[in-house]
Amino acid sequence: TESERRFRAVFDESPNALLLSETPEIRFVDVNSAATAFFGFTREELLGRNGLELNVWVDLERRNELLLEYRAGRELTEREVAFRRKDGTTFPALLSTRRLSLGGRGYILFS
Fold first, then answer.
1. For residue 7, what pLDDT is reported?
2. CB of 60 within 8 A of CB of 82?
3. CA distance linking residue 9 with residue 68, whole number of Å
């Protein structure tokens, strides 16, 4: 439908990295081109995997703190984190999350 095409275009062309993960496994089921540029992985390398498997978290304690907050029901908004690209370089970022329910399934949108 036209609505789906518009949503797809907004998702794909957003200048912000967007990664959609299915819960509870938190495996990426969709990513946009900004996310692939951000992390240096191809779309195929990201899909079906999670941040731990990809070694993108610089500080695992920080990741675990944020995960506990999220699981306690809090949305994360512009939280300071450090990520690692595929080539090993690190960079600071602001992480936000939103809970989504699509077709009866739970998802997390990371931006």
1. 84
2. no
3. 33
* Cα–Cα dist 96/111, whole Å: 5
Please give the distance of CA 14 from its chain centroid, rounded to a whole number: 13
Backbone angles phi, psi at 100, to 5 degrees: -135, 150
pLDDT in tens, 44-85: 999 999 999 999 999 999 999 999 999 999 999 999 999 999
d(CA 55, CA 6): 33
Look at the pTM and tell me if it is higher than 0.85. Answer: yes
* CA pair distance 32, 24, nearest whole angstrom: 21
Residue 26 and residue 29: Cα distance in Å, rounded? 9
CB of 49 closer than 8 Å to CB of 57: no
Q: At a CB cut-off of 8 Å and minimum separation 6, what does 33 contact?
A: 12, 13
The tokens describing 56, both together, are: 């993108």
Beta-carbon contacts of 28 under 8 Å, excluding residues fewer than 6 positions away, are 19, 20, 21, 46, 47, 48, 49, 50
